[in-house]
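Q: Given only this backbone (364 positions), what sequence would you predict?
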């Protein structure tokens, strides 16, 4: 197809600050991007969403591309992240998920007992999620090399938790019940999801993604032991197998980021997991994190999202403090989780400007 041919002749990259920082190379200042930077806080995003259902946007490459580009037109960011959702994987496994206004994602028929796993279909990931790869390839061209494009997936435990809870949850008790009552079935499900994640990330890289992020958003509901059993092995497998496959298929081996939100108890394990970058949420002191992980990985984060409600002056002060803690190297500036839908875009602009100012390497 035309898009497959397009996947070979992308415009040259003009700003590789993100990729350099991820690989531990020297940068002139910290690269900055923001989780959910293409989202509801932008009026131009809301305009697209008035006419189109959330998952229809994800499944329409032209729309996903347009939304991915919106924050790049507006702000001097150092990366774009493809507009999609972690729940496209449960959809590819045959589950029905809808995005309900004011509620969030809702599954038609969540998994209740291990026997329900028989209803899942093992997809041909190349076909089932083709719309994501098409959106990536199209976006790489439309970006015109301005900044790199990030691809992503949800991590197996986080996806499993949604598939059992049927949506978001304050406790994730139904999915944790599986871990305690049905450990073997849980591992079987996690392995199945892991295989899909690996294929999905390889195809995203093939389509033009230049960095891949794995979102373990529900790490905070596990403790050290459960994490070591039901999350970490699958995170390790994803990093290892994706890179092996990229080598086998003679594709560029792109840097990878793991973000285990609430995983403060696993900093050391995550630092040794083979991912180039690890995300930190806002509950972790960067100085402490750096002590634990040393300088072998790049850190990403970790500005408290609601701190963007502060005045522009206070945002500048808080970012300065954050920059002093992280230093200028081996760090990708970001929030500690996604930006909120009711945020003033100008306050995000102030955050980005402050990172530029306070993370710049001082000239001798």
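A: Predicted residues:
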């Amino acid at each position: 197809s035309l898009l497959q041919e397009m996947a070979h002749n992308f415009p040259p990259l003009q700003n590789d600050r993100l990729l350099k920082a991820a690989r531990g190379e020297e940068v002139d200042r910290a690269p900055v991007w923001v989780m959910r930077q293409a989202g509801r806080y932008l009026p131009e995003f809301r305009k697209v969403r008035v006419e189109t259902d959330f998952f229809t946007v994800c499944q329409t490459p032209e729309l996903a591309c347009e939304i991915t580009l919106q924050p790049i037109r507006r702000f001097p960011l150092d990366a774009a992240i493809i507009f999609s959702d972690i729940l496209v994987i449960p959809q590819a496994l045959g589950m029905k998920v809808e995005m309900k206004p004011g509620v969030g994602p809702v599954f038609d028929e969540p998994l209740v007992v291990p026997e329900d796993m028989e209803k899942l279909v093992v997809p041909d990931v190349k076909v089932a999620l083709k719309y994501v790869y098409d959106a990536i390839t199209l976006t790489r061209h439309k970006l015109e090399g301005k900044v790199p494009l990030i691809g992503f997936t949800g991590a197996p435990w986080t996806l499993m938790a949604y598939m059992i809870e049927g949506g978001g949850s304050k406790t994730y008790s139904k999915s944790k019940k599986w871990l305690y009552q049905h450990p073997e079935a849980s591992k079987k499900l996690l392995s199945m999801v892991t295989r899909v994640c690996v294929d999905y990330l390889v195809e995203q890289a093939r389509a033009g993604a230049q960095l891949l992020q794995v979102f373990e958003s529900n790490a905070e509901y596990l403790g050290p032991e459960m994490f070591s059993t039901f999350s970490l092995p699958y995170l390790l497998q994803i990093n290892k197998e994706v890179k092996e496959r990229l080598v086998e298929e003679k594709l560029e081996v792109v840097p990878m980021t793991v973000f285990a939100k609430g995983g403060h108890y696993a900093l050391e394990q995550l630092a040794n997991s083979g991912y180039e970058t690890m995300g930190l949420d806002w509950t972790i002191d960067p100085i402490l994190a750096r002590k634990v992980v040393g300088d072998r990985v790049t850190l990403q984060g970790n500005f408290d999202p609601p701190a963007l409600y502060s005045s522009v002056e206070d945002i500048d002060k808080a970012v300065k403090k954050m920059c002093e803690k992280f230093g200028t190297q081996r760090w990708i500036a970001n929030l500690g989780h996604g930006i909120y839908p009711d945020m003033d875009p100008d306050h995000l602009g102030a955050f980005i400007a402050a990172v530029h100012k306070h993370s710049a390497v001082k000239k001798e």
